[in-house]
Design brief:
alpha+beta; 5 strands; 5-stranded mixed β-sheet; 3 helices; Tetrahydropterin Synthase, Chain A; elongated
Protein backbone atom coordinates (compact mmCIF):
# COMPACT_ATOMS: atom_id res chain seq x y z
CA UNK A 1 0.00 0.00 0.00
CA UNK A 2 1.44 3.36 -1.09
CA UNK A 3 0.30 6.80 -0.03
CA UNK A 4 1.08 10.10 -1.71
CA UNK A 5 1.91 13.15 0.41
CA UNK A 6 1.79 16.74 -0.85
CA UNK A 7 3.70 19.32 1.16
CA UNK A 8 3.98 23.04 0.39
CA UNK A 9 6.90 25.35 0.95
CA UNK A 10 7.10 29.10 0.39
CA UNK A 11 10.00 31.19 -0.76
CA UNK A 12 10.58 34.59 -2.30
CA UNK A 13 13.16 35.08 -5.01
CA UNK A 14 13.90 37.34 -7.93
CA UNK A 15 15.04 36.58 -11.45
CA UNK A 16 15.56 38.07 -14.87
CA UNK A 17 14.64 36.01 -17.88
CA UNK A 18 17.56 36.49 -20.24
CA UNK A 19 19.49 34.23 -22.58
CA UNK A 20 23.09 34.87 -23.58
CA UNK A 21 22.27 33.10 -26.86
CA UNK A 22 20.04 36.06 -27.86
CA UNK A 23 20.78 39.67 -28.67
CA UNK A 24 19.33 42.36 -26.41
CA UNK A 25 16.56 42.92 -28.94
CA UNK A 26 15.75 39.20 -29.12
CA UNK A 27 15.70 38.95 -25.32
CA UNK A 28 13.25 41.85 -25.12
CA UNK A 29 11.07 40.32 -27.84
CA UNK A 30 11.02 36.83 -26.28
CA UNK A 31 10.86 37.67 -22.56
CA UNK A 32 9.14 41.09 -22.62
CA UNK A 33 8.85 42.76 -19.23
CA UNK A 34 10.48 39.71 -17.59
CA UNK A 35 13.76 40.79 -19.25
CA UNK A 36 13.94 43.92 -17.08
CA UNK A 37 17.68 44.39 -16.32
CA UNK A 38 16.83 44.88 -12.64
CA UNK A 39 14.80 41.66 -12.49
CA UNK A 40 11.53 41.08 -10.70
CA UNK A 41 10.42 38.86 -7.84
CA UNK A 42 7.88 36.18 -7.02
CA UNK A 43 6.49 34.62 -3.89
CA UNK A 44 6.76 31.01 -5.02
CA UNK A 45 4.67 28.19 -3.61
CA UNK A 46 6.51 24.91 -4.11
CA UNK A 47 4.49 21.73 -3.72
CA UNK A 48 6.38 18.50 -3.33
CA UNK A 49 4.58 15.19 -3.98
CA UNK A 50 6.23 12.20 -2.29
CA UNK A 51 5.03 8.62 -2.06
CA UNK A 52 5.82 5.50 -0.13
CA UNK A 53 4.39 2.72 1.96
CA UNK A 54 2.80 3.45 5.31
CA UNK A 55 4.99 2.31 8.17
CA UNK A 56 2.81 0.07 10.36
CA UNK A 57 4.61 1.19 13.54
CA UNK A 58 4.20 4.96 12.96
CA UNK A 59 1.22 5.08 10.62
CA UNK A 60 3.21 7.55 8.50
CA UNK A 61 4.64 7.41 5.02
CA UNK A 62 7.48 9.73 6.06
CA UNK A 63 8.13 11.87 9.08
CA UNK A 64 7.09 15.45 8.23
CA UNK A 65 9.78 16.81 10.56
CA UNK A 66 12.41 14.99 8.46
CA UNK A 67 10.94 16.29 5.20
CA UNK A 68 10.69 19.84 6.55
CA UNK A 69 14.28 19.77 7.84
CA UNK A 70 15.44 18.56 4.42
CA UNK A 71 13.41 21.28 2.66
CA UNK A 72 14.71 23.99 4.96
CA UNK A 73 18.33 22.97 4.46
CA UNK A 74 18.30 22.10 0.75
CA UNK A 75 15.60 24.41 -0.65
CA UNK A 76 14.71 27.37 1.56
CA UNK A 77 18.23 28.16 2.79
CA UNK A 78 19.53 28.02 -0.78
CA UNK A 79 16.82 29.92 -2.72
CA UNK A 80 14.82 32.15 -0.34
CA UNK A 81 15.45 35.88 -0.86
CA UNK A 82 17.99 35.21 -3.58
CA UNK A 83 18.42 36.45 -7.12
CA UNK A 84 18.19 33.17 -9.05
CA UNK A 85 20.43 34.53 -11.81
CA UNK A 86 23.35 34.69 -9.37
CA UNK A 87 23.12 31.07 -8.21
CA UNK A 88 25.33 28.31 -9.60
CA UNK A 89 22.20 26.32 -10.52
CA UNK A 90 21.36 28.92 -13.17
CA UNK A 91 24.77 29.82 -14.57
CA UNK A 92 23.91 27.92 -17.76
CA UNK A 93 20.10 27.93 -17.45
CA UNK A 94 17.57 30.70 -17.89
CA UNK A 95 16.01 30.94 -14.40
CA UNK A 96 12.47 30.38 -15.65
CA UNK A 97 10.02 28.68 -13.35
CA UNK A 98 10.11 25.69 -15.69
CA UNK A 99 13.85 25.34 -15.06
CA UNK A 100 13.33 26.02 -11.35
CA UNK A 101 10.97 23.01 -11.30
CA UNK A 102 13.67 20.81 -12.78
CA UNK A 103 16.32 22.06 -10.33
CA UNK A 104 14.00 21.60 -7.33
CA UNK A 105 13.10 18.12 -8.58
CA UNK A 106 16.79 17.23 -8.53
CA UNK A 107 17.04 18.43 -4.94
CA UNK A 108 14.06 16.47 -3.63
CA UNK A 109 15.05 13.37 -5.62
CA UNK A 110 17.81 13.07 -2.99
CA UNK A 111 15.37 12.87 -0.06
CA UNK A 112 16.05 9.39 1.35
CA UNK A 113 12.78 8.53 3.11
CA UNK A 114 10.21 8.61 0.28
CA UNK A 115 9.93 8.53 -3.50
CA UNK A 116 9.60 11.87 -5.27
CA UNK A 117 6.64 11.91 -7.66
CA UNK A 118 6.56 15.50 -8.88
CA UNK A 119 7.24 19.15 -8.16
CA UNK A 120 4.65 21.85 -8.71
CA UNK A 121 5.59 25.51 -8.48
CA UNK A 122 3.05 28.30 -8.39
CA UNK A 123 4.72 31.45 -9.67
CA UNK A 124 1.63 33.67 -9.66
CA UNK A 125 -2.08 33.17 -9.16
CA UNK A 126 -2.29 32.50 -12.91
CA UNK A 127 0.91 30.54 -13.55
CA UNK A 128 1.99 27.20 -12.17
CA UNK A 129 4.35 24.56 -13.51
CA UNK A 130 4.81 20.85 -12.77
CA UNK A 131 7.70 18.53 -13.41
CA UNK A 132 7.71 14.78 -12.87
CA UNK A 133 11.05 13.87 -14.34
CA UNK A 134 13.00 10.72 -13.88
CA UNK A 135 12.31 8.75 -10.72
CA UNK A 136 14.66 9.06 -7.80
CA UNK A 137 17.42 6.42 -7.78
Amino acid sequence: MRVELHRRYHLSASHRLHSDAYTLEQNRAVFGKCNNPYGHGHNYVIEVAMSGPVDPATGMMTNLADLDAFANKELIAHFDHQNLNTLADFQTLVPSTENLCIVVFGIFAQYPHARLERIRIEETGNNSFEYSGPAAP
